[in-house]
């Protein structure tokens, strides 16, 4: 599950994002509304947490505009604005409202609860490439009929490669979709996952390096 956290207090941003990641969530962070807007344009989220008073304005109005446009992602306001009128206004737009100072365990619990509210997407069709078959609904992958034992991230990488087939999946996109912003772009975590996938897919090889771009999955030669 993936969360967007928008908070301009850098110490609080670090503390909250660390706690959410410790609960198994992928977390992207933003310090203001333009940064949050950019993140929402390129990623899908199961929940969004907003401080109300940000350098670029009150997040209440921003979330209200998105709601009017049909944005369904559950939102929690994390704010020092604690008057009854503030709470009522916030809950009229968002799904939850937590006043600072707060208990970190309570915040994590509320975010997890909101993530579970996200409607389950329609089960996508089974993806196929040569003798490789991936069923996102069942979270199963088979090659030549044999079930593959994949980790969560290996499955996510393989799924993105198959969704992009016959085109290549860019390295930056794979890092962004499968990990979160915490990963260093220079890290070799993707290369490690690719090497493990290649081993598990066995011969003949299906995952090919596209120099300067990323990786392509293909039943034959690249």
TrEMBL record:
Residues 2-115 form the Response regulatory domain. The modification 4-aspartylphosphate is found at residue 51. Gene3D superfamilies: 3.40.50.2300, Winged helix-like DNA-binding domain superfamily/Winged helix DNA-binding domain. This is Response regulator transcription factor. Residues 124-219 bind DNA. The lineage of its organism: Bacteria, Bacillati, Actinomycetota, Actinomycetes, Pseudonocardiales. SMART domains: REC, Trans_reg_C. Keywords: DNA-binding, Phosphoprotein. Residues 124-219 form the OmpR/PhoB-type domain.
